Amino acid sequence: MPRSRPAIDSELAAALEAMPIGPNGVFDLTDIPATREAVRALADSIAATLPDEPTVTADEIQVPRAEGPDVPVFLLRPQNAPGPLPVLVWFHGGGQVLGFAAQDAPWLKPLAAALGCAVAAVDYRLAPETPAPGAAEDGYTAYQWITHNAADLGLDPTRIGLAGQSGGGGIAAATALLIRDRGAATPPVPAAAVPDAR
């Protein structure tokens, strides 16, 4: 007897319908800007249905670098946790071609509140416009800036972790390698590196 295809949860079915799927049944990446906009719109619509975490503030910081564009960092800080706070440097998923730093805020905010730590989500540059190791360089730039400005931010430079989801896990691992390889010019090494934390 042939197996029946399992039913898809209605919320997942709606999300699947909104995805730009090509004729071969996978993401249509022939028009990357349009695909990125569709993914961002979907993430924004999902976020709008979720409860916010009012005890966590969110600020976007433009981290400067000597050459190239600034690196946007989405900094989440629990208001009720005593400082200096440990900080998790986070890299969003999206196969390194899709996604954006704020997309994970709906679940990163409750995580920050529960753990009493700050989360710095890096809005790294995406492929194919920025080939490797561009995204990891963005992670390295953000890490250096956080460690050098930790006191002003109320963060603890000796308790910084690196983590990411899916393709962001690869960026977290590559960032950890850059920190290791450039150790002589870098502040303390990360306290933890979790390549794929979701």
UniProtKB/TrEMBL annotation:
Sorted UniProt keywords: Hydrolase
InterPro entries: AB_hydrolase_3, AB_hydrolase_fold, GDXG_lipolytic_enzyme
Gene Ontology molecular-function annotations: hydrolase activity
Short name of any one Pfam family annotated for the protein: Abhydrolase_3
Residue ranges of every copy of the Alpha/beta hydrolase fold-3 domain listed in the record: 88-187
Keyword Hydrolase: yes
Stretch forming the signal peptide: none
Gene3D superfamilies for the chain: alpha/beta hydrolase
UniProt-recorded name of the protein: Alpha/beta hydrolase
Protein source organism: Streptomyces argenteolus
